[in-house]
């Protein structure tokens, strides 16, 4: 991993962050298109892309967590107050939990439908985490969708906070990730 400058996160963490942003946006857009597809019960290209985006989110989360654990965190200058630090920690914890929960719930929903998640466009199936269960599938799908809607708000809070730090507080919070 690249060592970060004193003012920015490592290149690995920054790339993983922005690739995660792209994967989350892709997942949201592709599921909207995929909901409108009808392929006679087969998974269409948009939903295959949605699956790939979800798997990418999960893989990038591992990279981010490892990168954050192994590398130093550049300080915010000027240092924020205790309430800002607590709010940031809670928001980041929520973001990371969503980034973990959403792909896992998606995989569980597919598995509960009696299907294997396959690596998109290759047909290589991933091992099923659970056996088919239509009742559990319905519950997990609804939870996946509901959390997806709540995740919009958490993402929005994160973006607004980053912009607030950049334009109002005029600290280096956002620049550390650019």
Write the layout of secondary structure elements.
Blueprint: H1 11-35, H2 45-70, H3 82-112, H4 134-169
Helix pairs in contact: 1-2, 2-3, 3-4
Question: What does this protein look like?
Answer:
66% of the residues lie in helices and 0% in strands. The mean pLDDT is 91. The chain is elongated and about 55 Å long. The chain has a single domain, classed as Fumarate Reductase Cytochrome B subunit (Up-down Bundle). The two termini are 17 Å apart. With 178 residues, it is an all-alpha fold. Helix 1 packs antiparallel against helix 2, helix 2 packs across helix 3 and helix 3 packs antiparallel against helix 4. Keywords: Cell membrane, Electron transport, Heme, Iron, Membrane, Metal-binding, Transmembrane, Transmembrane helix, Transport. It comes from Dyella thiooxydans. This is Cytochrome b561 bacterial/Ni-hydrogenase domain-containing protein.
Multimeric status of the protein: single chain
| CATH topology group | Fumarate Reductase Cytochrome B subunit
Q: Provide the β-strand percentage band.
A: under 5%
Order of helices and strands: HHHH
Would you tell me the overall average pLDDT?
91
Specify the helix fraction band: 55-70%
Principal-axes shape call: elongated
- Give the total of domains: 1
How many DSSP-defined strands? 0
From the 3D coordinates, which CATH architecture would you assign? Up-down Bundle
- Structural class comes to mainly alpha
CATH class: Mainly Alpha
Radius of gyration equals 18 Å
- Major beta-sheet overview: none
Low-confidence stretches: none
Q: If helices are DSSP runs of H or I spanning 4 or more residues, what is the number of helices?
A: 4
Report the end-to-end length measured between terminal Cα atoms: 17 Å
């Amino acid at each position: 991993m690249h060592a970060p400058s004193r003012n920015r996160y490592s290149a690995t963490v920054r790339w993983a962050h922005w690739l995660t942003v792209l994967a989350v946006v892709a997942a949201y857009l592709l599921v909207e298109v995929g909901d409108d597809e009808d392929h006679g019960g087969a998974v269409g290209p948009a939903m295959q892309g949605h699956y790939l985006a979800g798997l990418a989110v999960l893989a990038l989360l591992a990279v981010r967590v490892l990168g954050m654990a192994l590398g130093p965190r550049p300080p915010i200058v000027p240092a924020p107050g205790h309430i800002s630090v607590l709010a940031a920690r809670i928001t980041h914890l929520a973001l990371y939990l969503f980034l973990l929960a959403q792909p896992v719930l998606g995989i569980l929903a597919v598995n509960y439908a009696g299907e294997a998640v396959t690596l998109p466009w290759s047909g290589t199936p991933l091992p099923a985490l659970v056996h088919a269960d239509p009742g559990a599938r319905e519950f997990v799908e609804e939870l996946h969708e509901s959390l997806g809607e709540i995740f919009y708000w958490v993402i929005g809070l994160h973006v607004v906070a980053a912009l607030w730090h950049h334009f109002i507080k005029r600290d280096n919070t956002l620049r550390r990730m650019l």
